[in-house]
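User: I'm curious whether this sequence folds into something compact or stays loose and floppy. Could you predict its structure so I can see for myself?
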Amino acid sequence: MTAAPHIPVLLEEVVAALAPAPGAVIVDATFGAGGYTRRLLDAGATVHAFDRDPDALAAVRDNPEAWPEVLPQANGQPPRLVLHARRFSEMVDALAEAGIPRVDGVAMDIGVSSMQLDRPERGFAFSASGPLDMRMSREGESAADFLNTADEADIADVLYRYGEERQSRRVARAIVAARPLTTTEELARVVRKALGYHAGAPKDPATRSFQAIRIHVNRELDELDAGLAAAETLLVAGGRLAVVSFHSLEDRVLKHFLRDASQVSATTSRHLPQVAPSHAPTFAQVSKAIRPGAAEVAANPRSRSATLRSAIRTDAPARSLRKVA
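Assistant: Here's the prediction. I'll summarize afterward.
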């Protein structure tokens, strides 16, 4: 994992939104390389770190010198860093098993990590050829499994829904005609040919298809929806939620969640009838979108599409908890 380091995006802004204090219990729902976790630990918090990618947590277990907080404390107290090799949609059950009913903060950095993108053998990107995999957990249906067995209409639907590919039917038809596909290079070539891509064009059209297939294989939007509901269930009154998203689909899910949770209407038109709130607001002080500054984008170009939104939990009962099968 050290060969492809991950730079935490909007680090200062995320830490400020969480306001960690000594003794606080905070969930890092997407541990990755641990950038957020390190800063939270340094502030004196206890961190429960989740990641469904086994490589991410193995990097900590194999290097306790860099992560001494994963070991019991000298005074006999439990470790301040607790690892959970699970999806963040499962955090309520996982923390209950650890005897943690409530937490003071939840951080989420949604999407794929640099370590995954930069390792060809994981099959997330087409910058170098690798197996057509894309599985964050390394379990279940791979991208190759899906593309080589799904109906053309189902492939087109995934490309349109999760990649916003306007020519999804054409691309799906080309994928089916080229089956079986086994590598990222093969898939990128098929997509480019279907869309008439020429080298030197400003944006590679294969990007949209790769995003769509990755989101489908990992059920990322379902995970996000369930993870936000889990955070609402776990956070104490005054607890803080900070979520970094990287594309419009993720941000749309997050905005919808925060709008409904805070009972802030999408419209304030006086010409529309007033609608009674369906529940007491479970979040307040919802932030505006925060994006990286020019200096951060220059230092880390992958941060350019990042958006941070945060909110503070009220004392209202949580709404129903959603789960991913």
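Summary: The longest helix spans residues 220-234. Residues 164 and 315 are 38 Å apart (CA to CA).
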